[in-house]
Each structure stands twice: as C-alpha cells, then as structure tokens.
Amino acid sequence: MKTKKVNVPLMSDLFSRGETVEYLFWVGCAGAFDDRYKKVAAALARILTYLDVSYAVLGKEETCTGDPARRAGNEMVYQMQALQNIETFKAYDIKKVITICPHCYNIFKNEYPDLGADFEVISYVSFLSDMLKSGRLKLSSNALKDKVITYHDPCYLGRANKIYEEPRMLLGAMSQGLKEMKRNKSFALCCGAGGGQMFKEAEKGDKEIFIERTEEALETGANIIATACPFCMTMITDGLKYKNREEEIENLDICELIVRSLKI
Q: Which residue among 51, 99, 180, 201 is buried most deeply as judged by most CB within 10 Å?
C-alpha cells in the first residue's frame, strides 16, 4: 500500500468549512516543542494518514493541559489551563481525543471530568492495538527480527491506568519477542521525571533514578529500548549518554518502530 502524503488537518480550517472529524490528535507540549518528540508526533500523523483515520489537530489553539502545574502544586494555573482547553473542545464539539503523552492522557481521563469535561480520551497505544486487532493495522513479525527490544512502562500508562498489554502487543507484532526488564509492568521503575521531577534539580541520594532504570534496560542485552512517553524518552536517552551507549543502542517510541516496520 502506497502511503498518502501527510497533510495534517487543522481543526479550525475544517470547522470553517462545516466539516467534522472523528478524532482530535492532541500533540502535547513535547510533541510541539521538543525536537526529539516532534519526530514521534510526526510518526503518529504518518500512521493515522496511512490508516485513513479521520483526525485533525488544534495547532496554535492547543495549550498545555496544566499537568506540570498541578504536579508542582500550582492548582490555580492548572485550573485556568484546563478550563480553557475544555471550552475549546466544546467549541469544536470534540468527542474523542488521541494522545501521545501519558501525562496528557491521565489528566484528561482522570482529572478533567471534575471540571466538567465530557469527551473520550484514548492513548495512541490503545488506539493502535485496537487497529491491529481489527486487522486495519498489519504488522510483520519479521520487520524487526534482527533486533532485541525491551520496553519501559511509563508510570501514567502502567500503574496509573493499567495499560500494559497494548504496547507489548504492538511490539510483539513487529518482532520475534520482547526481552523484559527485571522490573516491569506494575513493578516497573519510574524513569525519574514524573511528579514534576523533570523540572527540578536532583535530590540527595547515591544514584539518580534514570541511571538505575537505564542500567536495568542494558542488562537485558536489548539494542532497542522502546518507550511511549516524552518524559521517559528524555530520561532514557540521558541514561544512554551517561553510559556512553547512545551510538549502539536506540531509544525509540513505539510510533517510530511502527513507521519503520511499515516503511512509510
């Protein structure tokens, strides 16, 4: 199947023409501003186009969910940002939202309803695993057959929302098997960036969490560390640099692996 040219639709443009879409693709701060995670956002846009999914983005109308502010204790800023987003969603009659950041997913799903939000939020790994199960997304187990892959569970997908099997299903469909870290699923070690820690100096201790987690990944012998969160990607990438292994071991998001598998 030949890939269509990726022309990401803008919600305001469609709305002005009286058109609607099924999904809002919520890009998130990392997908919009972080050079590394822009590649992940682009990868999902490529996959959605390949699957002929009806979607659009908000573009400049998208603002932060308020998650970092709330995690850091600034409730007022969180509520201001959340209420602004809720009003934008209502204005465009948005009913379904796909996220690539577990932090956005978690706050939309579990905290926005307290402020009157009424929309369905779907993590991209759940969305794509559903596409795989339905047969719309076809992946080959030979695509990454020469690669050993380990997967790091993001806290806000895993422990917070019990999304464990979906990413493993996607990775398993592209490879000959997954090499689990000794701590995985509900016992997985945090990357060290959650709860506002991304924006703070390291606290006292013998070893930073991201280094210990990277060491656990390296122990598996994997040459690809798969992640599904911008915070986790940043910390694991830093860990590989700290260990001087960034040239030989790749840290890739599941979206990027799917694009590589499909060759799109």
A: 99
* Surface-to-core class of residue 248, CB atoms within 10 Å of its CB (0-12 exposed, 13-18 middle, 19+ buried): exposed
The domain boundary, picked from 98, 129, 160, lies at 129
| CA dihedral angle for residue 15, residue 92, residue 253, residue 157, rounded to 10 degrees | -170
Angle in degrees, 0-180, between the axes of helices 230-242 and 209-219, rounded to the nearest 10: 80
Query: What is the identity of the amino acid at 165?
Result: E
Q: What is the pLDDT of residues 14-72, one digit of tens each?
A: 999 999 999 999 999 999 999 999 999 999 999 999 999 999 999 999 999 999 999 98
Alpha-helix residue ranges (DSSP H) falling in the chain: 11-16, 28-33, 35-50, 67-71, 75-91, 102-110, 124-134, 165-174, 209-219, 230-242, 254-262
Q: 148 lies in which domain range? A: 139-262
- 83, 105, 129 — which closes off a domain? 129
- Indicate the number of domains in the chain: 2
Q: Any bridge partners for residue 178, and if so which?
A: 149
Whether 160 and 122 share a structural domain: no
Contacts of 213 (CB under 8 A, 6+ apart): 152, 189, 190, 191, 192, 235, 236, 239
The C-alpha atoms of residue 43 and residue 135 are separated, in whole angstroms, by 20
- What is the reported pTM? 0.93
